[in-house]
Amino acid sequence: MSKAGSKLNFSSPYHPQTDGQTEIVNRSLGNLLRCLVGEKPTQWDLILPQAEFAYNSSINRTIGKSPFEALYGRPIAHFLDRAPIPYPGRVSADADYYLKQIQEVQQQVHQRLRNSTVKYKESADKHRRGMTFNEGDNVLIYFRKERFSAGGYSKLKRKKYGPFKILKKLGENAYLIDLSPEVSTSPIFNVSELYEYHGEAPSTVDIDGLTSRSDIETPSDGVEDILDVRESVTRRGTHRRYLVRWHGRPLSDSSWISEAELRQLREDLYQRYQDAISTESRFPQLEGN
Predict the structure, then answer these.
(1) Which CATH number fits domain 219-282: 2.40.50.40, 3.30.300.30, 3.30.470.20, 3.30.420.40?
(2) pLDDT tens track for 229-251
């Protein structure tokens, strides 16, 4: 991978805009699968080979080549290309020469990506606020939905918490924040999630709703009741998700969790629910005449 010029770059957690190219690919694949599955959305895994071939052989507007050609240095072989006909355009089998061909193609792809990135950046910068913070500054933090623990997010819950102190600047747009150990999220935040705090920092910071539910020790602190169950049938079997009400929280904070999560939090409640279902199926209620 080092000979091909590949390197690993880290991105800020819970900030998909940092890795925009990957998010665009995910969006394109989602749209492609949505078109192919038609009226059978639960069988999306059956058409993955067709979707993969269609995506890898399609010309990308940004790079001007298909993803397959950008990776291997030549167009993908279709049915007619596999016929026993001499193909003068095929590269040499020599590894070094083949690598050189791939590098030339990837250089062209990189150049087109850089040109496209510059164009998109100029458009995005028109609506972006430029902020720079120093180590030791106090900031308010905007917590995205993904950062809240299970059952801790609500549309009416406040999104900004703080103030918190900046410990270190990581790169050009990421910061390491001094979070309380009870906060169940990564302490690295993108600059777009930070806001200036004016005034003196209080002695304590209200972190209600940010604490982790992985430290639950007693059932009374977790799931209070099961409100509903939803089943989905796929090729690999039947999967269940449970709508649960959290102890000490309003009904509006109820959320869906998987069967494995329910058993981890409230095994006793899960078993009681299964026993009740089996009892109802064994002794169905008879309608009166």
Answers:
(1) 2.40.50.40
(2) 888 777 777 888 888 888 877 77
